[in-house]
Amino acid sequence: MDYFEQSRTFIMVLERPDNCMDLFDFISEKKILSENTARAFFKQILETVNEVHKAGVVHRDIKDENLLVNTKTGQLHLIDFGSGAFMKDTLYTDFDGKF
After folding, report:
1. Which of 25, 66, 83, 85 lies at a CB distance of 3.0 to 4.6 Å from 96, suitable for a disulfide?
2. With a threshold of 0.85, does the pTM exceed it?
């Protein structure tokens, strides 16, 4: 949908889903998640990570701020692959992020 060019990277906006908020804000707003909701979210996260890995990519920054919740359907979207890398059989020695 859009992109932003920086000196060493590009930021790509691939979608703007309606009715979404990040999982951190969702949990903060709800205070408590039911066991069924937590189980459904965790299952979606595992399925998504499995599909990403099958595509040969590792996210390397999975956290609640990088998961969007569709507040109407409960569907999750994994976002922000800025620390991502292609899968490899050797150690990852580079670092992306802040200390």
Report:
1. 83
2. no
